[in-house]
Amino acid sequence: MSRFVFFIFFGLLFYANAANAQKRSTTPKKQSSAKRAVNAPAKQSLRARPDTNRLNTAEVIDSVRIDSSGKVQQPEHVSGVSQDTLTEQAAEEKLEKPAKTLADSIQSYKIIVDDISFLTVCPGTAITIPFSTVGPFDEENTFVAHMIDANGKSVPISLPVKKSPVKAVIPSYKIGGEVYRIQIVSTQPIIKSQEVPVRLLQLPAARLEVADGTQSVRIMPGQEAMLKVNLTGAAPWSFRLSDSSTVLQTLSNPHYISVRPKDVRAYRLTAVANACGSGTTSGEAIVNVNNNPEPKLELKEAEKIARLCSGVPFQVPFNATGKYKEGNHFVVQIAERTGAFKTISTPDTTGQIVTQIPTSYKPGEYKLRVISSAPYLVSQTTNVTIVSPATAILQKDSLHLGENESGELTVKFTGGGPWFVLLSDGTYENNIQEPVYKIKVKPIYDTNYQITSAGGLCGVGKFSGSAKISVKSAPASITLDKLPQNMVCSGSSIEIPYKTEGRYNPGNRFVVQITDKTGRFVDLPTTVTPATMKVKISGSASEDTIRTQKIRIISSSPAVSSAIQEIDVVAPDKAVGEVSGKSTVSAGRSTRIQLKFSNGMPPWSFTLSDGTAINGTFLNPYLISVSPASTTEFKISSLKSGCGTGTGKGSALVTVEN
């Protein structure tokens, strides 16, 4: 028997050693399989065979905890993992750089650039780009600003920074006038922000030429030549010409400049600048001056002086070209069609003559010319008409219009036009071409029309005449609505509701009236609103406590009255409270006494001689219960009503039997 037990013991021991040896031989295979899986993440087409001996990866990852120092702690239920098995952190550190970036991108990382759309910057200048971040960026991470052109090429434009904002410099070789995009890029992990557009201002450039696009122009002495500067880049521009003339902050493009050289001169641009600094200039304009030309004299824009007014100054437009002798002067002459020319201006040497037609010249047709003295030259003549001052007459009409109807008034004009007219009601018409003109009017009330002002080509003229228009409308009426109360205290204010119909004239006034002690209506101070009239009721005679008075509303234009209503006016501080009653009660029992009020308005407030007080009752008469401890005579010690204070009279005797 002992032998049998011995063989069983050694058999079990041999079986246990064989099982342990098999377990040790399979563990390294698991480790090498894990290493191959970690070191070759790019081979996504290769799939590992399922291994039932491995732990569930999701369970391990879900149960991993990170302590405050950043070290990974394994839970107790996975403590059986072999020490040579790679942890998640160790496997990530063994990843190649692209793979590590992919692993980091699982986290929610964002870089958000603030709005910089308001920026307009120049090449070579510095800008500040604020931004915000989302996600746990590494401590060694930095941020760099990049500029992306239209072709998608990106270049860094700032030094690395740890936090917002980024201070960047726009490369000076970037072309202004184009739209670029700004982006912030981080290093650990590599995250890119959204692309934000920014517009670069363009450096200025200017090209000079003659106004007609050529490079040269010929003028006479004293004449002006017009030059043109074509500008590019961001406005506004400033530039300088070779004659030292300077133009600052112009927005005109092209910009025109007039020059008047005495001799032949070549003009160039010496500098141009805008907000981005100095730019490039090009072009040249040569102005040739003919120093010995034959003098010429001619009128220009003669249509501007075809119609003239006596006594009104005007400028005579003419050209005087060529070389005139020393002491030369110009004058303007006028003549009738068959008469001799007479001078009507003072001698002028500048070529800009302002003169006027003498008032002695009657309206009609004339000829006008300009002459020079050295040498003696005569311009061509032009026909001019001297027109008479305007007159306007408002025709005497008498129109009858219905309500909201319009009518026409007739005005006749003479003298030089076009004409204008202003009527007394403010109606205005101008640029009138017809000598008999109809003006449309729409009066609200009966109106007498006159001309306030009228004139024509020669300014304000003479005017006269009048017209009358009557307007038919519904008869005016005033309705006094029911009064909100038929009894009021003297000196108090009430609002009286009313309605009106028809049309009232300008300046009309509404007033509330009330009768006095003689029965005559007198005005009350009235505040008028569209729906009510607020008035203060005047007092009645001092000997009256309550007086019935009549009240109404009247208007002044037209004179209309409402219906009459009656209202009771109570004199102030005239109220009376009378106490009455007599009774006998046992001790501890109560009885009632009576108070009767007159000559006032509710509510009534009173205090009895025993101190009992009642505040604001509308009952009249008023019964009050009393329970005196001994025989008492009750009186009113104080009294108030809706129209002030009052007095008490009478008494009530209550006898108490013990």
TrEMBL record:
The entry's keywords: Signal
Sequence segments annotated as region (Disordered): 24-48
Region forming the signal peptide: 1-21
Superkingdom of the organism of origin: Bacteria
Protein name: Uncharacterized protein
Natural source organism: Dyadobacter sediminis
